[in-house]
Design goal:
alpha/beta; five-stranded mixed sheet; 18% strand; 5 strands; 146 residues
């Protein structure tokens, strides 16, 4: 015989499963046309800009839910790190729909992909949490080693 607690837990689990199944998938919205504190990179300016200093570059697709979900956090990190520009540290973006060849060049196979470049050379992909705090912490760790 099941205890009352076991019955209540089972009922709660069933209710949560029904609610989760009935809830629509969350749609993320981000207005890519609004100016941000990121540097927009293109095929025309990528090499000239990234050739000097430390660059954190997000390769994104404007239609991608994960790109839209991360965009606001990436903007907050870019705004917080404006003072680092004096130390040659920049936060940038590449629109992979508009710059397909550039994204192919760096073998971007998922969105968003965030890579660290130092003096024009790709160092590694950022694998941390997709939060402003995680990105800022990562940049500070790399900057202190650079």
């Amino acid at each position: 015989m099941m205890s009352i607690q076991a019955v209540l837990v089972a009922a709660l689990a069933t209710i949560l499963a029904i609610v989760a199944a009935a809830a629509p998938a969350q749609a993320y919205y981000y207005d890519w046309s609004v100016p941000s504190n990121t540097v927009q990179l293109t095929k025309a300016n990528f090499d000239a800009k990234v050739n000097s200093g430390m660059w954190i570059v997000e390769f994104y697709a404007p239609w991608c839910a994960n790109s839209k979900k991360y965009a606001a956090a990436y903007d907050r990190a870019a705004t917080a790190m404006i003072p680092l520009r004096k130390q040659n540290v920049f936060i940038a973006r590449v629109d992979c729909d508009a710059e397909e060849a550039l994204c192919d060049r760096f073998k971007v196979d998922g969105y968003p992909t965030v890579n660290l470049f130092i003096d024009g050379k790709i160092q590694e992909e950022f694998e941390g949490d997709r939060t402003a705090h995680a990105l800022i912490t990562y940049v500070n760790e790399k900057r202190n080693k650079h």
